[in-house]
Amino acid sequence: MTTLLPLPIVLPLLGAALSILAGRSRTAQRVIGITVLTAVMVISAVLLVAVDRDGALVSQAGGWPAPLGITLVADRLTTIMLTVGSVMLLGVLVYAIGQPGAERNHVGFQSVYLILAAGVALSFLTGDLFNLFVAFEMMLTASYVLLTLGGGRNQVRSGMTYVVISLLASALFIAALALIYTATGTVNMADLAGKMSELPPGLRSAFAVLLVVVFGIKAALFPLFFWLPDSYPTAPSAVTAVFAGLLTKVGVYAILRTQTLFFDEGSRPATLLLVMAGATMLAGILGAIAHDDVDRILSFNIVSHIGYMVMGIGLFTAAGTAAGIVYMVHHIVAMTSLFLAAGLIEHVGGSSSLTRLGGMVRTAPIVAVLFLIPALGLAGIPPLSGFVPKLALVDAGLLSDQHLIVGVSLVVSLLTLYSMVKIWSAVFWNPVMEDPEQETHAVGRLGGPPLMVIPAVALILVSLAIAAGVGPLFDLAERAAADLLDPAAYIEAVLG
Amino acid sequence: MTTSLALIAALLFGVGTYLILQHTLSRILIGLALLSHGANVLLMGSGRRGTPPLIGSGDTAGFADPLAQAFALTAIVITFGVSCLLLALAYRSWILTGTDEVEDDVSDRAIARGGPDKEVADEEAWHEVALGPDGASQDTEPASSA
């Protein structure tokens, strides 16, 4: 079973190389992309079942024992994230193939997309802090290219902000790595867990906060989120969907992993994380309310909802962490479906500005449904997928007596509903504004090309499946949370 | 030796941070390069110092820590690649806009002006003000024309 561990990284990288070689035939590239991502999805699901049954799987690259070699570790959290992430990556790839634009016009799209997939998989799987840095760079470099694919003025401007802020975060990450290596003499995460506890408490707290800042930039936490709503909306909608679904979540995953594994109760910055979580929720949702463009409203909603996951982490209880994990799963699927629906809205309406759109409930009823379900799910309306994780978060918050953050999260939920209803009423219900310059595509019965509609439908079915099967999912997340808060099994699996 | 490494890293971080806060793209790029150099120097200083770590060249107890050097090498390669991409982007930006200034977020500016409704009109108006009819920068910062 451990031979499967490197495959989610190696297969996409091989696929990326093949895809470049097959550059003359777009069909061959598509076959490669879809085959590779389907294989990764199946492998991730197999790993999830195996890890949940038998405990964490460890693979030492080149046979060098930890902490000397590079370690790949799959525990429950890793495999949950891998599985959801690969389902989403596959869905969005099919959508990108169906969408006129980025994928058709650029010979490198497929291979860059696969490198992004490999980077994401490596950041989930790695058991080595320096390797996590490399994984982040793989993923980010691919995302720089995807973000600026068109090379238009707006894309270059926002891409610039994105690249500069990511590079800054990387430099900080290297600095943090250097300091941690100086203090402990290791970068293996399991080894660090033990060595970190021998350091003086002040130093440990400093490392904890440094890592929160480094990963907080990637996760778009308040006050480090400003680059996200600026850069994401300018990319093609398929690319934005991947970024929205996965990239920030990789940052959240890194926060969750490092804080729980490296630091004990005394040195974890719990209050700081909770304050940042509350401020992230509020700042994000206020931005969403102020803006007037579908993509921007959704981008601010990403920021806002990162706050919920970090709230779950910041509680540092089994209930809070489990709720945060389920929230991540729900949010990856819901946010991706929303951006896919937003791409369809642009495809049909020719614009993403609320003032220029209207009446789409009649012209494109299927798109309306495709938007409404994840939108209500995001706001946490029962029985959709957002309800249970939100309820669990509130419950966990009340158990820990953190009434303020619970209050903030409830208010923000209501405002999320408002921002979604704002899009809904402007785009779908209001009468069409007559605009002679507006170009609209001819709309078929589906409201878009079948290859764009089918992945959107499929992801919504996945989110409905999450809502229906939330009981078993929650049990799984609780087991994952127990592993995280008591990392003895993880450490023993790696160090033997 | 370690103190001087720490001082160099601190200096590079300070100068890099100052340059990143500037409004000109070329300075931001140089600032980022200096900042990553600072991080790499820090990485170099993180390992044990000693003789070259070659098996058979002497007592292994006196070897320098090769891992820190491997880290720094990896980080340098990655930073090099991303810097190249960034330079290409900066060049593209210069071709498209004719200036070296970092532009503000158009939509944010519209909101700051009190309403997103005229977003597009605002964007066009701003480009006219900032770039002038011939696309040359009329912004007042003198150093940006370099």
Question: How are the SSEs ordered, and which strands pair?
Answer:
The complex is a heterodimer of chains A (496) and B (146).
Chain A: H1 7-21, H2 26-54, E1 57-60, E2 71-74, H3 76-98, H4 102-105, H5 109-125, H6 129-147, H7 153-184, H8 189-196, H9 201-219, H10 227-231, H11 237-262, H12 270-290, H13 294-315, H14 318-349, H15 360-363, H16 365-379, H17 387-399, H18 403-429, H19 450-468, H20 470-485, H21 488-495
Antiparallel strand pairs in A: 1-2
Helix pairs in contact in A: 1-2, 1-5, 2-3, 2-5, 3-5, 3-11, 3-14, 3-19, 5-6, 6-7, 6-11, 7-9, 8-21, 9-11, 11-13, 11-14, 12-13, 12-18, 13-14, 13-17, 13-18, 14-16, 14-17, 14-19, 14-20, 16-18, 16-19, 17-18
Chain B: H1 2-20, H2 25-44, H3 66-97, H4 106-112, H5 119-131
Percent range for helical residues of chain B?
55-70%
- Annotated CATH topology of the largest domain in chain B: Helix Hairpins
Poorly predicted regions of chain B are 116-146
| Broad shape of chain B | elongated
Number of strands of chain B: 0
Overall CATH class of the largest domain in chain B:
Mainly Alpha
- The average pLDDT value of chain A, as a whole number, equals 87
Verbal overview:
The complex is a heterodimer of chains A (496) and B (146). Chain A is mainly alpha-helical. Chain A has one domain (2-495). Chain A is built from 21 helices and 2 strands. In chain A, strands 1-2 form a two-stranded antiparallel ribbon. Chain A is globular and about 65 Å long. The model of chain A has no long low-confidence stretch (mean pLDDT 87). By secondary structure, chain B is mainly alpha-helical. Chain B folds into 2 domains: 1-53 and 64-102, Helix Hairpins (Orthogonal Bundle); 105-137, no CATH class. In chain B, 62% of the residues lie in helices and 0% in strands. Chain B is elongated, with a radius of gyration of 23 Å. The two termini of chain B are 38 Å apart. The relative contact order of chain B is 0.11. The model of chain B is unreliable at 116-146 (pLDDT under 50). Chains A and B meet through helix 6 and helix 7 of A and helix 1, helix 2, helix 3 and helix 4 of B.
